[in-house]
Design brief:
By secondary structure, this protein is mostly helical. It folds into two domains: about 1-40, no CATH class; about 45-100, no CATH class. About 55% of the residues lie in helices and about 0% in strands. The chain is built from six helices and no strands. The longest helix is centred in the middle third of the chain and has 16 residues, at about 45-60. The chain is globular.
Amino acid sequence: MNPIPKNKLVSQETIEDICGCQGKAGDNGHCILRDLVALMGLNDKLLEQYKCIEIFKFERRIGGEDNGWAEASKLWVDEGYAKRFSEVYKDGMKARKIYNAIFER
């Protein structure tokens, strides 16, 4: 039985990529974050970009791990990383690979 609700806009691979527990949280790998993400109706591209902003926020130490989303999102756009994301992103790419390509690592 797959605990992740079906959502035609987002792939299970993307949910696994952005979810920190990677299916290992809770009983039988159940993770409420994965279920909520699947239910939200967001698409793969948007979710991967959110994950890239999370990495950016953490690496720049913007507001710690739990805060600073508004500041990080503004910097992401203002510094041209959102545009670069759109240039780099291809279906099926995962956040770390996208992020590294944006910053040419």
